[in-house]
Amino acid sequence: MPYEKASYDWIEHVEEGSDCNKHNRQEAVNETPVRRVRNLVHLIILKDGIASDVIASSLKNSSHAFSTVSSIEAAYEALMKNEQMVLLASSIESSYIGVMSCSLETIPYNALYEVILTFPYSKSWIFGSQIDFYLSIVSKSGVLTDAASVYFMTGRCYHPNYKIPMPSVLDLADNASTYIFLLIGIVTSFILMGLEVLVRRILGEREAKDLTPLVQGRHYTAKIVAIKRNGVSVTIGNRPEHFFIPNNQLHTDPLKVYNALDMGLTEGAEIEVTYFGDENDSNTPLFCRYFANE
């Protein structure tokens, strides 16, 4: 059964303009920052809860009786058994209890919040060790300030009398939605492809600038990466490009016809070559095999 706000009649001493003014109330009957509740079965507080001593002392001058519960679980059971049961606790504890059910109603208690705005924390509290660990990370003061306002937590799940708007979700079964997702995928793919091409181009230009230019007449060590019928392809140093050396430039007698296999060359083998510049007609680098003893 939905929780009915009409079962409560709040009478409170608060400043004008606070959030509590939205509740129907009569003229304040005392100066104690306590809400007097009509038709309530019981008011409970947590034993060893956050600022439980401050909450209890603020209730001493109240004509309404209250009792303590020993644990969070006991408070939750009491709230769920009777929808007129009310727990007075900090928002830290009330939020913890709130996750046990769909959404127990919490009402900001601004008057008492001003009383416990700043107070020393105690390890005897239910969440004392967790708060101690939290403060050791985010604070060096050793004092829990702005602990969040004290809340009334009422039993059962509160259902507002207005309709909560539901978020709109694209239905994948709808053709229009399918085309939208397809278009998004295509556009994203083109963007990623463009970025990849751009990165490769930038890296290629950077590598080209970092390479030392070939010097005409200098000897280089070349590694054979492929053997073809009319010559071999080699790499020189850390250069990314492949250079082709024809068969007649792999031995000392260019008039004889030998191929790389006849000369005992294999893929992965290293040979010494001499760079003779680029050919005038094709700007192709010209290399000849170098023999140190000849």
Automatic annotation (TrEMBL):
Domain of life the protein comes from: Eukaryota
Membrane-spanning intervals of the chain: 179-199
Name used for this protein in its record: PBPe domain-containing protein
Keywords, sorted A to Z: Membrane, Transmembrane, Transmembrane helix
The keyword Membrane belongs to this UniProt entry's keyword annotation: yes
